[in-house]
Amino acid sequence: MLHVSPWIASLFIAFGAGGLFPLALIIPIEEASSVEEATSWSAIMQFGGFMLGSLGPAFFGLTVDLFGNFQPALIVMLVTIGIMIVSIYKIGNKAPRAEQAKS
Fold first, then answer.
1. How far is it, in rounded angstroms, from Cα 54 to Cα 66?
2. What angle do CA 88, 33, 96 make, to 5 degrees?
3. Which of 2-6, 17-21, 31-35, 83-87 has the highest mean pLDDT?
4. In sequence order, which residues have a C-beta less than 8 Å from that of residue 41 and are 6 or more positions away?
5. Which of 23, 34, 64, 98 is the most buried (most CB within 10 A)?
6. What is the DSSP letter of 96?
7. What is the pTM of this model?
8. Calpha distance 50→62 (Å, rounded)
9. CA-to-CA distance for 41 and 32, rounded, in angstroms?
10. What pLDDT shows up at residue 95?
11. Mean pLDDT for all residues in the chain
12. CA distances from 43 to 47, 77, 102 (A)
């Protein structure tokens, strides 16, 4: 079993909830080329995020019932976070913007 300080977990939770969530809300605004597109992307992101978030407690409960600890669920969560970080770095608006076209 993995034993670590709860302060380390608190720092990761604070960084994710306090820093990354507001940044994730900005992504559709930055990447969209119109207001309608930004609204659509924002709705899709929130729908998907809340759907994945709603599965979290059931997944954690299932892993505790099957394995007797939280370690498999935490490993899956770390892998999911890694995939999300990589996908965020891959996102980029390829279309030239008006400000970029002037310079």
1. 20
2. 85
3. 31-35
4. 27, 28, 31, 32
5. 64
6. P
7. 0.55
8. 19
9. 8
10. 54
11. 78
12. 6, 23, 31
What size, in residues, is the chain?
103
Sign (positive or negative) of CA dihedral 86, 69, 58, 6: negative
Structure tokens at 73: 């669920």
| 25: pLDDT strictly greater than 90 | no
Contact 90, 100 (CB under 8 A): no
User: Torsion angle of alpha carbons 16, 18, 23, 25, nearest 10°?
Assistant: 100
- pLDDT for residue 42 is more than 90: no
Local structure of residue 97 (DSSP, 8 states):
P
At residue 92, the pLDDT reads 62
Burial classification of residue 42, based on how many CB atoms lie within 10 Å of its CB (0-12 exposed, 13-18 middle, 19 or more buried) = middle
Question: 73 near 4, Cβ under 8 Å?
Answer: no
